Amino acid sequence: MHAESLPAGKAAALKAFEGMAAEPGVPKPDPILVVDNVVRRFGGLTAVNVKHVEIQRGSITALIGPNGAGKTTFFNQLTGFDTADEGQWTFNGQAMNGVSAYKVARQGMVRTFQLTKALSKLTVIENMRLGAQSQKGENFFRGLIPGLWRGQEDEITAKAEDLLQRFKLDAKRDDFAGSLSGGQRKLLEMARALMGDPQLVMLDEPMAGVNPALTQSLLGHVKNLRELGMSVLFVEHDMDMVRDISDWVIVMAQGEVIAEGPPDSVMSDERVVDAYLGAHHDAPLSAEEEERQLHEAEAELDKESTE
Ligand SMILES: Nc1ncnc2c1ncn2[C@@H]1O[C@H](COP(=O)(O)OP(=O)(O)OP(=O)(O)O)[C@@H](O)[C@H]1O
């Protein structure tokens, strides 16, 4: 397909990556997020150790990697939900390390959340309103008190209703969020994130638990964020989705960024294939490995019976 026939957002995003070296930490022409030397340790385990990474504005960037690679921990740090042991990062040129989650959201960097048990017991519209309040760092229940807050409340409700319509959730307005299907929950998570008019939307596994019937609709909504001028960074295990919607892919393994590049080439990169295979614990065991494990188990049993 020629760039001219692509939607404006997609064409511009692809143009920005044209000719870019596919290597970890490669500089981007207009980064919205720049990360340097971010480290997070849990006891003896270094869960995140990202030297340098840049996220291009106006693009859809996927963050992939095997289980336990550190993707969620990295996401949590960038959005103020976890503290980094070391490192700095800037959003729109402003230092963001040590900034609390709601202030990060207010600056325009918002992540989606899976519906927790508590949120499932609220209605869809209440979830949306809560999205606005929590991004402002305000108390939700104080926001429900009539009078002083009413004007602001009306505005928030109107905005929530607009978004619910856009995400085709308006018929579910007064249903409990817990009664939504997997795909509808994902739509609600995305709609809720948009309550704060983010510039960078960070999606945590947007396709997890989504019925194939809703896949295209969800993909369409993510692409639309880019058409509306937002930047998207998402963590995802579904490689079809990654291939379909991302302009650029960043790969993490064992806490580090090990590769970057356009979707097709990065997924066939030897380092990436190795990282996934190395982390694939379900792979069939070789005959020697099976025998070794058997001996180990027998030795354990022997030890136990003599103790
Ligand atoms: N709160 C914690 N305490 C101790 N270890 C943790 C904690 N959170 C994460 N870890 C460890 O840090 C490593 C990275 O985990 P993380 O969840 O960030 O990986 P991930 O790439 O998001 O994995 P997945 O794709 O399975 O969600 C893992 O080894 C995990 O066990």
Automatic annotation (TrEMBL):
Pfam families: ABC_tran, BCA_ABC_TP_C. One of its GO terms (cellular component) is plasma membrane. Residues 33-279 form the ABC transporter domain. Residues 281-307 are annotated as: Disordered. InterPro entries: AAA+_ATPase, ABC_AA/LPS_Transport, ABC_transporter-like_ATP-bd, ABC_transporter-like_CS, BCA_ABC_TP_C, P-loop_NTPase. Residues 292-307 have a biased composition (Basic and acidic residues). Keywords: ATP-binding, Nucleotide-binding, Transport. One of its GO terms (molecular function) is ATP hydrolysis activity. This is ATP-binding cassette domain-containing protein. It comes from Herbidospora solisilvae.
